[in-house]
Each structure stands twice: as C-alpha cells, then as structure tokens.
Amino acid sequence: MLVSHVKIVILVAGAAQLARAHTAFTNFFVDGVDQGDGTAVRMSNNIQQATFPLSSVTSPDMACGVNGETGVSRVASVNAGDTLAFEWRDWPDASQPGSIDPSHKGPCAVYMKKVDNSAASNNAAGDGWFKIMEDGYDSTAGKWCTEKLIPNDGHLAATIPHDLAGGYYLVRPELLALQQADKTPADPQFYVGCAQIFLSSSGSADPLNTVSIPGYINMSTPAMTFNIYDQPMKLPFPDFGPPLYTAGSSKRDLEARAMVQTIGLKPDACVMENVNWCGFIPSSYTNETGCYAASQNCSVQATDCYNSAGPTGSKNCFNWENFCTQIRNGCGAGNYNGPPSISSFMPAPLPKLDLAAVVAASGPMAISNSAPIEASSTVSMEAYDSATTAMPAPAAMAVGPARQGCVVLLMDTAVRLRITVARGVSLNSATALEPQSASAGTCDSTDTSFVVADFISEVGKIQEI
Ligand SMILES: *[C@@H]1O[C@H](CO)[C@@H](O)[C@H](O)[C@H]1NC(C)=O
Ligand SMILES: *[C@@H]1O[C@H](CO)[C@@H](O)[C@H](O)[C@H]1NC(C)=O
Ligand SMILES: *[C@@H]1O[C@H](CO)[C@@H](O)[C@H](O)[C@H]1NC(C)=O
Fold first, then answer.
1. Which among 26, 59, 179, 264 is least surrounded, fewest beta carbons within 10 Å?
2. Ligand 2 touching residue 303 (CB < 6 A)
C-alpha cells in the first residue's frame, strides 16, 4: 500500500508521539448521498503531501488546490437548493479516522464559480468566485468553524442558492487554520479543493460580488495575522473575501436557457467506481480465446484503476482485481462461459449522511441559502421562553404573531426552523435575526408585533432544527 500521509515523530518527555497530519477535502455528499472518494473532486495528486496546507495565500493553487487546474472526468449532478456536505480527512484514504488536528483553528467558507465545463482544465484560478457559505468564530459556542468539523466527522455543509442559473460550476470549500498566524513571519494555512458539479436550475442569477482567486487576499489582509491565542481574542473575526451571496442578493439575471448535463455523467455501463475510474464488464465469451481476452481486458482495467487512484486510495480496485482473478481462474479451469457475476465483488453501498445533523453542526449559515418559505406555505410560529418552557411540539404550535424570544417556524409540518431573537431587538429588523443556539436560554416573551409575511420576507438567516 502506498503511504497516504506523512508521519512526523516528535519526542515529547521521552515518549514518541505521532503528530497528526493536516487535512484534505476528499469527497462530497449531494443531499446526503456520497459521490465517492475523490469522485468529481479536484485534489492534490501528491499522495505524500495531499494534506499539506497551500504554500502561499497568493499562489494560483489557492483556487482549487495543488493540481487544481486539472479537471477530472466526473461531474456531480446537483439541483438548485440542494445541500452539499464536504468531507475533510486527516488521512485521505480514511485508513485512520480524523478530520483535522484540533490545533488547526480558524474559519471555513465555500465559494462557487460558473464555468463552461467543470471537467475541463485551466478554469480555476482567476475571477468569478462568489461565496455561498462562511462560518468564522462562534462566540456562543466558543468554537471556530474548524473545531466544529471534528465532532461532525469532518463534514462542512453549504446549500446551493436556489436562484443560481443552471450550468457547470466549481464549488470550492476553504479552511483557514490560524495556529501559526501570530508568528513572525505569519503562516496562515489554507486547505482547499474543488468539487465539479452541474447545477440543474430554473434560476437565472449571476452573482455580482465576485473575486479573483488568487488575488482576493494577501498577507496584509487582517485575518491572515489574526491571533487566536489573545485573551480575550480581538473579535469580531475580520472576515475576508466577498460578501456572502444569498438567493436574491446582488446579482444580474442571465437569459433563461434550459441546460442539460452532457459532461461527466456516470456511464450507463459503469459497474464499479474508484475515484473517477469506472469498471466495465468485459464482453461475454463462450470459448477459451474469449475467456482469456476477457481476463486481459479486466486486468488492463484494474491497472488503470490503480494508476488513477491517488490520495483517497484504491479500495475498489482490489474488489475489481478479485473479480478479474475469478475470470482468470475460470479460464484456467476450462470454464469458458462467462464472465461470472460481479455482484459478490461489489463494495458495500456508501452510507447516507445524516444531513440534518451536519447542517446543525455546521452552523446557521449552512442553510441560509435554502429556498424561501413561500407565503402560501403553511407556516405556524410561536414564541416561547426557552428558559422556562420546553419547545412546543409541532402540533401544539398556533398560527399567529410571534413575540420577541425564541421563535419557532413550522413549515408544512416537515421543516422546523427556530430563531432566537435577542432581548430588546425588533423582529422587523433583518439584522436582528441572527439565529442563536437553541439552548441559549436568553429569550424573553416581551410582546412585539410583526406580520408573518414580513418576517418571512426578511428572514435571510434561518436555522433548521
Ligand atoms: C493587498 O491587498 C490590498 C487590498 O486588496 C491591496 O490594497 C494591497 O495593495 C495588497 N498588497 C499587496 C502587497 O499586494
Ligand atoms: C473491455 O471490454 C469492454 C466491454 O467490451 C470495453 O468497453 C472496454 O473498452 C474494454 N477495455 C479494455 C481496456 O480493453
Ligand atoms: C470464440 O468465440 C467468438 C465469439 O465469442 C468467435 O468469434 C470465435 O471465432 C471463437 N473462437 C474459437 C477459436 O472458436
């Protein structure tokens, strides 16, 4: 097996300790469905260094990482409003558990860029990047975004704004680890990669607040030298990059154009996958020549599988190779009718991700781009004092004006949204609607009047519970 991470041995008080590697974006989930290790992902092809931070905040690698200008063959199919979850791993092949070392504290963000073809090369660095998710320091929880990844199995969620124009996009999760940012010289550590997607959407939005990557930051950007060890820290954390794009914010509308994905789809005959490799069943045979031809065909595919595996490993290539062995053994035993069924060699199906848990752990921004609650939806809301009252069961919630305090929105009985409004702020102010932790216990029940429709139209940031 190839070594997929770098082990650094440090001697501490006479005992050998293994320092954990850094982190890499290895795979992503579309509405909870794992696309596969490395599938439709641009990542470093350097197995030993895939988890290393980028060398410089102004490097072209800042766009999609080392090797990030090289398109891969697969493109994931995504619908407008879908939530993506990006998985970060200490060990890209998941040979050991872990997402990121706890010392690596800092913010996360997710950017997108519209491209002609997300599987094409040389389209990452440069202008056109807009931000759809950001999460810095959560002073309520006392945690950086990167710290929330750890109990969350390395998953970072972001919802695709529902009004974006359809087409091919690169989606770029970004982590910034600040544990060396206070040093001289400062060493802010970026980890990025890109997912190649095709977005099916009836929307037409083309966000206006875009930046060039690299170019959007340099070492003078305040966040690059932010001291996470200050007691107390100099909050708020100075966000960087463009303002967040949420559905309906600063945009122009592209001409409506129905688009259908033609690039990067999984081929119909593809029976097994590993990263961006696909296995195809060799032609059926009824004699010795055909049997050995199928065996040869299978082995050539196995070699391609291993050669294309990269940092996330070659788990499914082993399965494929075992299938080839069965064919070859059959030929040797004079069984010239085949090929045999592949079913017993298939890898176990990838488990579905509990997206609700990821969204909850990723913070409120993760679903700030969800489809708006339509005025025609069944919306119930009720204020309650979380300090003294348990959250009402959905059935018990009455339709009607809410009050200051904890507000629960119930949409079509399936989606529950809870917003905690701080004491003394008006619910009519969109800026007052920063959701807080559900357990904050700081709500009161002072009456305030507002109209449900106004509330809905003004809520830009909501938290699904
Ligand atoms: C760093 O970025 C700032 C803001 O964009 C810019 O004014 C400044 O010239 C940049 N510095 C360098 C050294 O490029
Ligand atoms: C193996 O056989 C399949 C099915 O006939 C074919 O599509 C594929 O191109 C062959 N691959 C190689 C490497 O010969
Ligand atoms: C083996 O079978 C193939 C068809 O699968 C046929 O074209 C070929 O002539 C056969 N060869 C021999 C030696 O019978």
1. 59
2. no
Q: Would the CB of 267 count as within 6 Å of ligand 2? A: no
Burial class (CB in 10 A: 0-12, 13-18, 19+), 162: buried
CA dihedral 223, 229, 231, 232 (to 10 degrees): 30
Q: What is the pLDDT of residue 354?
A: 83
pTM: 0.79
Query: Taking Cα atoms as reference points, which of 259, 321, 261, 276 lies closest to residue 295?
Result: 321
Q: Whose CA is nearest to atom 12 of ligand 1?
A: 218
User: Which among 127, 212, 213, 220 is the best mutation to test ligand 1's pocket, defined by most ligand atoms within 8 Å of the CB?
Assistant: 220
How far apart, in whole angstroms, are the C-alpha atoms of residue 118 and residue 279? 22
User: pLDDT tens digits for 387-443?
Assistant: 444 444 433 322 233 333 444 444 333 334 444 433 333 333 222 233 332 322 333
Q: Is the pLDDT of residue 158 over 90?
A: yes
Mean pLDDT of all residues in 59-82:
97
Residue to mutate, 298, 299, 301, 306, ligand 2, most ligand atoms under 8 Å from C-beta: 301
- Please compute, for residue 3, the number of CA atoms within 13 A of its CA located in the half-sphere on the CB side: 7
C-beta of 220 in contact with ligand 1 (< 6 A): yes
- What is the rounded CA–CA span in Å between residue 304 and residue 393? 55
Cα three-residue angle 14-15-20, rounded to 5 degrees: 135
Please give the distance, rounded to the nearest whole angstrom, from the Cα atom of residue 334 to the centre of ligand 3.
Answer: 15
Which atom of ligand 3 is closest in space to residue 287's alpha carbon? 1
pLDDT > 70: percent of the chain: 73
Cβ 103 under 6 angstroms from ligand 3: no
